[in-house]
Amino acid sequence: MMDRRTGLALMAGVVAAGLVARAAPAQENVQFIPSLVYRTGPYGPNGEPFANGVADYYNLINERDGGINGIRIVFEECDTQYNNDKGVECYERLKNKGPTGAAVFSPLSTGITYALIERATADRIPIFSMGYGRSDAAYGRVFPYIFNPPANYWSQATSIIKYVAEQEGGLDKLKGKKIALVYHDSAYGKEPIPTLQKLEGMYGFKLSLHPVAHPGLEQKATWLKIGRRVRPDWVLMWGWGVMNSTAIKEAAAVGFPMERFIGNWWSGSENDVKPAGDAAIGYKSANFHGAGADWPVHKDILEYVYDKGLGAGKRERVGEVLYNRGVTNAMIVVEAIRKAQEIHGVKPLTGEQIRDGFENLDLTEARLKELGMEGFMLPLKLSCADHEGGGPVYIQQWDGQKWNKISDWYHPMRDVVWPMIEESALKYAKEKGITPRECPQG
Amino acid sequence: MIYRETGQFKTSYAADQAVLRLREDRIGLAVILLLAYVAIPLLASEYWLSTIMLPFLIYALAALGLNILTGYAGQLSLGTGGFMATGAFAAYKLATAFPGLDFVVVLILSGAITAAVGVLFGLPSLRIKGFYLAVATLAAQFFLLWLYNKIPWFTNYSASGVISAPTRTALGIPVTGFEASVTAKYLFVLIVVTLLSLAAKNMTRLEVGRSWMAIRDMDIAAEIIGIRPLTAKLTAFAVSSFYCGIAGALWAFSHTGAVEALAFDIGVSFRVLFMIIIGGLGTILGNYLGAAFIVLLPIFLNNALLGLGMQEAVAMASHLEAMIMGALIVFFLIVEPHGLARLWQIGKEKLRKWPFPY
After folding, report:
1. Do strands B169-170 and A146-147 pair parallel, antiparallel, or not at all (unpaired)?
2. From the list A4, A40, A93, which residue is nearest B318 (CB)?
3. Interface test with B, best of A50, A77, A82 (most B CBs within 10 A)
4. Cis-peptide, bond into residue A194, ω within 30° of zero
5. Using the beta-carbon criterion (under 8 Å), do A92 and B335 form an inter-chain contact?
6. For A30-151+292-390, which CATH class?
């Protein structure tokens, strides 16, 4: 009898504690930025360096500059475990915090992004899905609050095909070549398919599709088919988490050359190649920002954040690909808020005001140099109509120790992608009964 | 002394056959309904309504569906997620193909489609039992999800396979999509869940419900006393799938607004199964208790842990949440294998005698 009573008391205590509103320190002159992360769950190992990069960059801005023009950043993490329901719960939990509510959400999951598009639009809070999420959200006239710079999956697919073409000796040489796409069988993995099919029609290569079910630990049959039957000239991969390293190992097992195996930018971090060991040497992937800790911004992070004991992760992991992606994400958010402050004044801003900052974002070469990120990524400019920017991509290769940049930057085929974005976005608008808004730039 | 029938005389058959025969039960239910229909929409914040109450109600409905099949008819099923997905995709196809259709009609039709699919996958139950049936329904789970993922027609050729719920109205009031207010969504789901719970409660008291229970308790004996296993099992599958289908449609339309087939993966089936086991097999109340336990407790735990000063250690809070949750499940199954609903029943008996020990 005793333990039953204890159990009920325990439960009552837990419920009561959950009910009590969490007392947040009353701070008025700060900008609240929520951070949806996943440090646990199936993709936790990838979510962690990203979340650390974001946290470290915000701390750097607070410690080195005293905030964004003096407005300190307050951020709070919420662990989504890469689960859509949890992501929605985190969003609702954090959206009204801080003096002006949430500044911007970066869900770090295509599924959660989809679930938040309408909610955030209704709540007037921008969603910044950096290089993931809904590709046609680049069409700002239909998606006023969604941003996916520097490039979406469709743009990325064209950039990678450009690289492949260059290796083959030109776009006209693609004719008759066989390209296989190995993809995570989810909203995320399916995104590039229409683009690749369109390019297939334009350049006459032969595309074969190989879905891999979540989480992607079982790929023997897929790779036997690729290695023995399809025998493609190139394999592209849209994978995430443990699927990537498994694919690399299986590809090596069937003897597919790593030099002809290209992952997208979510399939090209240390976490993907290290578990595969030497088999991964030569594996390539796309990327839109630098790898390694050799930029001035990393020096500042180590000096102002880690030396003060404020680092979110381990010191030696600063500079990993996913860490740098977190830094990039945080940097773009901070620059968008800075831009919004130019428009609306230096004070804590609402999501709607920060949206204006995103739409007028203009990261020039000079600005990137000031930020200590010269050459880390290429300039980026957004507008009311263009929420993507069509940023360029380069190809990196793993040498067993680190990622090396082995190619130039490839700009996406905007002439191919933009009409598809427009068509898809307008179809969405029609389904939802949205009238596309007018944009000054057209 | 609190909960006793003394002095409450039934003078008609109708009174004797009422769902709630005790005045205390009627008052209790009236208070709960008043809370749910009036107090919560007025007092609860948007966060509460949209991320706590909505998933709780929808999961309770799915649990109700599975409980009819597993708790009342004794047919173990692991296909709940697949049936929910069927409801969601059927509702999406209907809502986009006939934009003017009232959402209530969409819901009923998608429930009916799911019921048909459920009957189809219920056919093997005539030959196989127990764990073997669980495996057969597991096949339904994987096949259905694969189907919606594979055939682009189900998602209206969306590039990513995600369906996004358009705004639809029920009796002229928008109840889904981004134009609907959270309160409208909540009240709509609440009405659906109330009506379907009432229907389920009554079904279990009717001939059909009694035939399910007879099949559950001993199928050969049931057959001998004249119950047709074919009808009993297939009606259980049909009704159960109808409920799960509506739950899936509400999940996609009223709760998240955008789902891909993966949102209804095997994890969902297990969650619903845990709900009915922890809540209580073969009870209606148990579905609500189980759904509250599985859906709400992790959110409370997480908030409580973060509230106790764990903001800096989000990962630790998540791990602790999973550990406490697991420990509580084991704990409750040891102290009360018949589920939380049984705890309430014991409580009622104690209240009847209170303050005397016997």
Report:
1. unpaired
2. A40
3. A77
4. no
5. no
6. alpha beta
Q: Largest Cα–Cα distance of chain A, in whole Å?
A: 80
**Local structure of residue A151 (DSSP, 8 states):** -
Q: What is the distance between the alpha carbons of residues B151 and B39, in angstroms, rounded to a whole number? A: 44
Contact between A404 and A396 under an 8 Å Cβ cutoff? The reply is: yes
**Longest pairwise C-alpha distance within chain B:** 67
Neighbours of A139 (CB within 10 A): 24
Q: What is the DSSP string of A266-307?
A: TS-SHHHHGGGGGGGTT-EEEESS--SS-SHHHHHIIIIIIT
CB A75 within 8 A of CB A334: no
**DSSP notation for B255-313:** IISEEEGGGGSHHHHHHHHHHHHHH-TT-SHHHHHHHIIIIIHHHHHHHHHIIIIITT-
Q: Are the C-beta atoms of residues A234 and A262 closer than 8 Å to each other?
A: yes
Name the superfamily (CATH) of residues A153-287: Response regulator (3.40.50.2300)
Taking only the tens place, the pLDDT of each residue in B65-82 is: 999 999 999 999 999 999
| Domain A30-151+292-390 and domain A153-287 have a common topology | yes
CA distance B208 to A441: 66
- Does B301 contact A135 at a Cβ distance shorter than 8 Å? no
- Indicate the domain borders of chain A: 30-151+292-390, 153-287
Calculate how close chain A gets to B77, using CA atoms only, in Å: 22
Can you give the pTM of this predicted structure? Answer: 0.87
Check B299 against A17: CB less than 8 A apart: no
Contact B258 A114 (CB under 8 A): yes
For A397, the token pair is 């290769």
Residue B141 domain-assigned (yes or no): yes
Listed in sequence order, the residues at least 6 apart from B186 whose beta carbon sits closer than 8 Å to its beta carbon are: B40, B41, B49, B50, B53, B54, B57
> A261 with A223: CB under 8 angstroms?
no
B40, B260, B289, best to mutate vs chain A, most A CBs in 10 Å: B260
Chain A contacts of B345, Cβ < 8 Å?
none
Residues of chain A with C-beta less than 8 angstroms from the C-beta of B294 = none
Rounded CA gap, A145 and A232, in Å?
40
Residue B345 in any domain: the answer is: no
Cis-peptide, bond into residue A215, ω within 30° of zero? yes
Split chain A (442 residues) into runs of 10 and give each run's mean pLDDT: 49 48 60 92 90 95 93 92 89 91 92 89 93 90 93 92 93 93 90 93 94 89 92 94 93 93 93 92 94 93 93 91 95 95 94 94 93 91 90 93 93 93 90 86 52
Chain B residues closer than 8 Å to A190 by CB: 159-161
The answer to whether residues A375 and A405 touch, using CB atoms and an 8 Å cutoff, is no
Q: Do the domain assignments include residue B228?
A: yes
Instruction: Indicate if the alpha-carbon torsion angle B206, B212, B217, B222 is positive or negative.
Output: positive
The answer to whether residue B76 sits within a structural domain is: yes
Give me the sheet containing A394-398, strands edge to edge.
A206-212, A178-184, A234-238, A261-263, A284-287, A394-398, A403-405
